[in-house]
Amino acid sequence: MSEDRYLNVALPKGRLGEKVYAAFEKAGYPCPEVMENSRKLVFENPDAGVRYFWVKPSDVAIYVERGAADLGAAGKDILLEYAPDVYELVDLGLGKCRMAVAAPENYRDDPERTLRVATKFPNIARNYYADRGRDIDIIRLNGSIELAPVLGLSDVIMDIVETGTTLRENHLAVVDTVLPISARLIANKSGYRFKNREIRRLAAAISEAITAVSMTAAAKTAAATEAKIQL
Ligand code: PRP
């Protein structure tokens, strides 16, 4: 396999990345070594023409934008926040969650006051409140966002909500859902031109694999519901 024909794929480290890899494997791009626990970061399968890298989830888009990877899987939150110059090829339907504004359960807003918003997503927050003509003061944090209103550092937060457990356990509640989030398959723009056939083949196979998985899940839910009705 000549070096430049490999498809270089940046996988987001962690649970989401493992699910993304499973979709690639199902689509015909296996490289089982990827799932072995090691400190290794690069894995390749010459037969499938694919090379995987584990990168920090918020860095995937940078690797792809700059061409260090041809493809990657990045959350819609990251794509909206950093607006990388990449192609968004497929909604992988994985890592589903939502971006939301949340506040302490007893919070009452005063629209006349500047709202203090703690977030990891200053651009998304700025756009959201600009659309509503609301003055805000952004407090940019890197994690444990839920702590900010609890300690009086902010009035509200804008953050990812998946199960809602972190909000509940810190006595916060969703005030508004900003947008639904899921992981997207993204491609480097020039890589997409040079490896067009390979990338389009992979994107189609991934779409098919994702559809098959979601149809199986839907069929299982339907069967379980039917079984419950018959009980
Ligand atoms: C994310 C997010 C929320 C939490 C939401 O944090 O920022 O804090 O997950 O998930 P839940 O609704 O299922 O509770 P992450 O785990 O990435 O850690 P962080 O606090 O370091 O950002």
Strand content: 25-35%
* Average of pLDDT: 94
List SSEs in N-to-C order: EHEEHEHEEEHEHEHEEHH
Overall body shape: globular
State the end-to-end distance. Answer: 57 Å
Biggest sheet, strands in spatial order?
2-3-1-4-11-5
Q: Treating each run of at least 4 consecutive H or I residues as one helix, how many helices?
A: 8
Number of strands: 11
Computed CA radius of gyration, to the nearest angstrom: 20 Å
Helix content: 25-40%
Unreliable residue runs: none
Main sheet attributes: strand count, strand direction, barrel closure:
6 strands, mixed
Which compounds are bound in this model? 1-O-pyrophosphono-5-O-phosphono-alpha-D-ribofuranose
Structural class, by secondary structure, is: alpha/beta
Characteristic terms for this protein:
about 230 residues, alpha/beta, 6-stranded mixed β-sheet, 5-stranded mixed β-sheet, 8 helices, about 35% helix, globular, binds 1-O-pyrophosphono-5-O-phosphono-alpha-D-ribofuranose
Molecular structure report:
The protein is α/β, with parallel strands linked by helices and about 230 residues long. The chain contains eight helices and eleven strands. It has helices at about 15-25, 60-65, 75-80, 120-130, 145-150, 165-170, 190-195, 195-230; strands spanning about 5-10, 40-45, 50-55, 70-75, 85-90, 95-105, 115-120, 135-140, 155-160, 170-180, 185. Strands 2-3-1-4-11-5 form a six-stranded mixed β-sheet. Helix 4 (about 120-130) links the parallel strand 7 and strand 8. The termini are far apart. 1-O-pyrophosphono-5-O-phosphono-alpha-D-ribofuranose binds near residues 143, 160, 164 and 165.
